[in-house]
Amino acid sequence: MRKQFEEELQKKLQLLSLNEVQQGHLLHSLWPRNWWRPAGLWWKKRPDDFPSDLSNEYWVIPTVFSDWTDTMKIVKEEILGPIMPILTYENVNEATAQANGTSLGLAEASF
User: What family is it from (predicted)?
Assistant: First the structure.
C-alpha cells in the first residue's frame, strides 16, 4: 500500500518556489542530518529546463515524512515550506498534548 501511495504521489508532485533565499537556508538547516535525502529533493540551482528568470530561486518538492517526533525542531517551528510531518499518537489525550505542546499556532490535521 505504501509503495502504491508513493508512486501515485510522485506522479502528482510539482516544484514550488520558496519566497526567499533565507527560507531555503532555514529549511536546509532544519533538515534532520540523519534522514535519507532522496535524489533531487532540494534544488539550489535550476534544472536545465527551467526558464532563466527562475535561476536565483530555491525550489523544493512538496514532501511528506513519517516517523518524526514532536521534539524535533523542524516539527516545533513554523518552517513555511511544503513539508508535512506525520506524527502518530496512541490516544486522544496524547494527540491533544502534542497539539497543545507548541507555543506557535501551527496548522495540523488529525485522522
Answer: Belongs to the aldehyde dehydrogenase family.
**What single-letter DSSP state applies at residue 39?**
T
Reported pTM: 0.50
Dihedral pair phi/psi, residue 84, rounded to 5°:
-125, 110
Give residue-wise pLDDT tens across range 2-40: 566 556 655 665 655 666 777 777 776 766 554 544 433
In one-letter notation, the amino acid at residue 74 is I
- Can you say whether the dihedral through the CA atoms of 68, 91, 109, 73 is positive or negative? negative
Question: Domain segments of the chain: what residues?
Answer: 2-100
**Side chain identity at residue 40, one-letter code:** G
pLDDT band at 87 (very low <50, low <70, confident <90, very high): confident
